[in-house]
Each structure stands twice: as C-alpha cells, then as structure tokens.
Amino acid sequence: MGLVGICLGGAAVFVKTAAVAGGGIPVMPIVTAIVFAAGVALARWSIAPSRRRSPGRGPGLRAAGGPAGPGAPAPAAVPSAGAEAVPEAVGLPEVGSVALDHAAVDADGFEHAVAALCARDGCPQVEVVGGAGDLGADVIATTAEGLRVVIQCKHYGEGNRVGSQDLQRFGGTCFAVHEADVAVVVTTSAFTAPAAEYAAACDIVCVDGDALAAWTESRTPPPWEAAAAVHAQAGAEGAAGT
After folding, report:
1. Sequence-separated (6 or more) residues with CB below 8 Å from residue 91
2. Is residue 84 part of a domain?
C-alpha cells in the first residue's frame, strides 16, 4: 500500500510539473507506466497474504494448535483456569528384610511405619488416625481374625521413657472409646516400671525399642498374636460352656 501511494503521488506531481512547463514530455506513456507498476504491486500484495505477519506474532512463533516447524519444541501444556494440583497419595513405607530406622523418622513417619508393619503381618485393614483429638489412638488395624487392634505410638528419644501417666491416659480410652480387642503401646525408647505394671494390670501390650526392632525384623510375632490366642481360647471355652 505504501508503494502504491508513492507511485500515485509521484504521478500527480509529474503531471502538474509537466503541465506548468508545457514542454514536449510524453506525459501519458509515463503516467500509464507508473499506474501499471502500482497495479502490479497491489495485485502481488493481495494474492500473497500468507507472507504478511499476523498481529501480535513475532518471528519464530506459531499460532496455538498449529503444526510445529522442523525441530520446533512441542508446546507446553497449560493448566486450565481454576485447576488445582492434586497431591500424591501418601502410602505406607516399604518394609523389607532390612529393619526400618525408626529413630530417623518424625512422629508422623513413625505412625506410618508401625501401620506398615501391621499391613505386612496380615492386617487387611489399617488406618493411621493420629492427630489432634485422636484420644490416644494413632493406628487402628483389623487382624485377619477380625480383632480390632488400637495402637498408640510414642516416638521418644532414648533417655525419655514412657511413664505410667501415658499408659493411664491410653487405658482410659483404648477399650471404652476405641473398642479395642487388643491395645498396644509402641515406643522407640522404653517403659518405666510403674508404666509396665499398669499395662500388665489393664492387658495393654507394651512394645519397647528392642521389641520393636525384633518385630520389624520378623524375629518375633506381631504384638497382637498372643492376645489373639487368648481371645481364641476364651471363645472356645465360652462355646464349650454353652
């Protein structure tokens, strides 16, 4: 369009100058040539729109959804408006032949590690329920025999032993509130003597750091197995009595 404007403007100036001069300059052939050149330029511009750059597109860019050129990287996916990142589900840790380093994890990780041990040893239903307002229950598992196992996890340092007050608080909720068939307290440290006495009186199974390592390495049966045998024996005696 700029070229056409220049040609027409030049033709007008030429004609005006020639008219004033009154010389023998061949005006019509020259004007015809200029108009013809302008028409050719205008025609070429109109039949080649693909060469014009689209507004807002710089060199090397392509329209969204268009085919990429050779060697061009694929366009990155753009999340839709309002989409939220979906966090990955938190699974139970792997429990293999190598003992887990229970001291290396935090309190939440310890609860998940204990839950993984329950699942490994045949509990078809395992749930980590620890947190604010848990009333002493951190892990609840159901054994293959249908026993409800309620576990409290105490991730303590070596010099911090589980005391009788901890056991008393758990003893007040494990059976009455959580309806446990088997109540277990698992710790990375040890129990005080009064705590062990209270646990024995209330049928609460205590698993200290050494017993936890043996359970993790499958050197001993799971802590609910002895209680399950007692329940089975009591059931058999009740059936025989009837």
Report:
1. none
2. no
Q: pLDDT higher for 242 or 92?
A: 242
Where in the sequence is the domain holding 33, given as residue range(s)? 2-48
CB 105 within 8 A of CB 188: no
Question: Is there a contact between 174 and 180 (Cβ–Cβ < 8 Å)?
Answer: yes
133: left (phi over 0), alpha (psi -120 to 50) or beta: left
Q: How many angstroms separate the Cα of 144 from the Cα of each of 147, 203, 220, 231?
A: 7, 21, 18, 13
**Which tokens in the block code for residue 210?**
């050494």
Q: Tell whether 42 and 106 lie within a shared domain.
A: no
How many domains does the chain contain in total?
A: 2
Is residue 97 included in any domain, yes or no? no
Q: Which pLDDT tens digit goes with each residue over 137-159?
A: 999 999 999 999 999 999 999 88
Q: Is residue 78 part of a domain?
A: no
155 part of a folded domain: yes
Distance of CA 218 to the CA centre of its chain: 32
> In this structure, is the dihedral angle defined by the CA atoms of residues 157, 160, 163 and 168, taken in order, positive or negative?
negative
Tens digits of residue pLDDT in 227-236 = 776 766 666 6
Does one domain contain both 194 and 130?
yes
Three-state SS string over 117-175 comes to HHHHCCCCEEEECCCCCCCCCCEEEECCCCCEEEEEEECCCCCCCECHHHHHHHHCCCC
Q: Are residues 111 and 32 in the same domain?
A: no
Helix axes 164-171, 193-201, angle to 10 degrees: 20
Which is more confidently placed, 139 or 7? 139
